[in-house]
Design brief:
Two copies of one chain form a homodimer. The first copy, chain A, contains 16 helices and eight strands. With 389 residues, chain A is an alpha/beta fold. Chain A folds into two domains: 169 residues, Rossmann fold (3-Layer(aba) Sandwich), CATH 3.40.50; 204 residues, Dehydroquinate synthase-like - alpha domain (Dehydroquinate synthase-like, alpha domain, Up-down Bundle).
Chain lengths: 389, 389
């Protein structure tokens, strides 16, 4: 187990009807709120009205900024920063999924910073302060509701880049599983693919003797695998929704990072994919991950055999560890397909014409590698994308 | 899954040599430290010298209070409160195991409180403030290094009572698995029994649809079960020590309480046992728990079958769920014995002469019940203690 530091201060408020506490909780931190959200789904579901009523009941002022898109854009972040400064906002409340939360975190860091908030994502500066951020989560997926990270897309060149800072852990996050009853099924399964990817990015590690967290990841993967089809069969199944939602937070609150180095190459590759083709992040991950797994399998076959056995219930063939590992990957692909996810670039609807461009961007023109489990050069990424065709 | 709120702000600093950071971390919160510890073991191991050197290097003043005993006493807490007030202490650093940490938490709550700190444990008052507490953990067991709870024994009547408050989450805890190399083996296995008990108290619940946390508990139990014998075979095995230590913290940082109601009757019964006979808490739990399990098994046989299968690898006999459940309990007893733990009151070295007195105290003269999974009256406790003979 590697030495580590772990601290996650986010307060989770979980369960039915919990969005009614948002005003009371917000009042502990701020007086004037930026209410940040995406499109009309929170209007249609009535969530917007409930949140606004709770803020008003707590005597809070607020301004609004909607319009967050999937793969949230820097331009809207800039508008948010300006709005907060103009209006004297002291608290950012994201009502939505990972994109809205990531956008809110960017705004929170941007408000007290004199330069361009993109500096953080470009690795040119580090924030010293941020406004407090909180969330009402509507999509279990990104884990951003209890993470220190944010991913933003810069339209100027379509760069999609992540940044992590302790300053942007949400002070609280409200998780009501009922809120996912109205999501389109495809959005739920894309979210599940993202949740699973967050666990796999951590699972495939070169760190040795990491049994506690290996087992926690395996068991949480199993919970997701069990509950997604259950939820799809009945999209009013609170119990299944609750398991998916809580697993999604645990998958990315950094407990599963303790004592080990994660990989994250698949996320990097997918970021290039969705920046260029604007595909859903989770669908992109479902496509990239099995290809990445086939490509990296021989780097640590024992880990892949353990994964196949413990997560996918593959009977280990001790004379054929490679076959055992491959059967695990095959079951993973079959699972993705069974819930309506793509596992090839074709099924994803991404073109194949710009693969080299993506591999080039991910490695900054083949000058850098991505990933930790296996350090990938441009040619490796090309080979992985080829396996994903 | 029940609605819940979860927040755990403790910063964990984990790994080899991490006690060298204690001065630097402490300086973020205080200027004058109460260094609180037990007996001579931290002197002998050199830990005391390293901690003091780190505090001095950070320019911190400190006063000392040693002498914490297992089942920490109210009298020493009172002395600590007075010492802190007299000396203007603003930070409590516990260097030791759960007893030392629990004593430190009591002192931290007592210093700013005008009445007797026992008021909190007696349920007569709630603290409004507390000094910040931090820990350097030497024994993986109680989980107090990342919990909001403390248990103190009042010598006036030998009452052992717990109290929980967000105010006493340690601000940081330093966990170096190397520190357990010098522990007597019996102390390690008692710690493991305590860790397992913390998970079982949460596992046996009436809350329905709690798969995520069920699986996390099962997998962490397995990690402990796997690594304790490994550590006993080589008490310099850092990897096994690290798994035990991190599992011990995860077992009690309240992640495993999310969405469910725990039981805690076995802890209550054991508190009476160790208050009267001054036995090791973990050994008492190893004795009480299997008896409690046999007594409560029929309340939810399905849960016991799941437990037997997933934690103890029992092949389920679907025609005989009771036999399956019992085989799980039998394997648990066999495990305890295999690592040198008692599973009967006789093996524990506790007398059988005061069982009724214990049952009486636990239920306040049969006017209250204990436990949540099954609510136990005095006669139930007597029956459980009878099964433990």
């Amino acid at each position: 187990m590697d030495n580590f530091t772990f601290r996650n201060p986010t307060k989770i408020i979980f369960g039915k009807g919990t969005e009614s506490t948002v005003g009371m909780e917000t009042a502990k931190y701020g007086k004037k709120v930026l209410l940040h959200y995406g499109g009309g789904s929170i209007m249609k579901s009535g969530l917007y009205d409930r949140v606004v009523a709770s803020l008003k009941a707590a005597g809070l002022a607020y301004v609004e900024l909607g319009g967050v898109q999937p793969n949230p854009r820097l331009e809207l972040v800039h508008r948010g920063v300006k709005l907060c400064r103009d209006e004297g906002v002291d608290f950012i409340l994201a009502v939505g999924g990972g994109s809205t939360i990531d956008s809110a975190k960017a705004i929170a860091m941007g408000v007290p910073y004199e330069g361009d908030v993109w500096d953080f994502y470009a690795g040119k500066a580090a924030p010293k302060r941020a406004l407090p951020v909180a969330t009402v989560l509507t999509i279990p997926a990104a884990g951003s509701e209890s993470s220190d990270s944010t991913v933003i897309t810069n339209e100027d060149g379509w760069f999609k880049r992540g940044y992590s800072s302790e300053l942007v852990y949400p002070v609280f996050s409200i998780l009501n599983p009922e809120l996912i009853f109205t999501l389109p099924a495809f959005q739920v399964v894309c979210g599940a693919a993202d949740i699973m990817a967050h666990m796999m990015e951590r699972y495939f590690t070169n760190s040795k003797n990491v049994e506690t967290v290996d087992r926690i990841i395996e068991s949480t993967m199993k919970t997701v695998i069990h509950n997604v089809p259950k939820f799809l069969a009945n999209q009013k199944d609170y119990d299944a929704a609750a398991e998916i939602m809580w697993s999604g937070t645990l998958a990315h609150n950094n407990i599963m990072s303790t004592g080990r180095m994660g990989d994250w190459a698949s996320h990097n590759i997918e970021h290039e994919l969705s920046a260029i083709y604007d595909v859903a992040h989770g669908a992109g991950l479902a496509t990239v991950f099995p290809a990445w797994m086939k490509y990296t399998m021989k780097h640590d076959l024992t880990r892949y055999v353990q994964y196949a056995e413990r997560v996918w219930n593959v009977d280990v063939n001790h004379w054929d560890p490679e076959g055992t590992a491959l059967e695990g990957i095959r079951r993973q692909e079959a699972f993705y397909r069974s819930v309506g996810l793509p596992v090839t670039l074709k099924e994803l609807g991404a073109g194949e014409d710009r693969l080299e461009e993506m591999a080039d961007k991910a490695t900054k023109g083949d000058t850098e590698t991505i990933g930790q489990f296996v350090k990938l050069k441009k040619a490796d990424i090309m080979a992985i994308l080829d396996l994903a065709k």
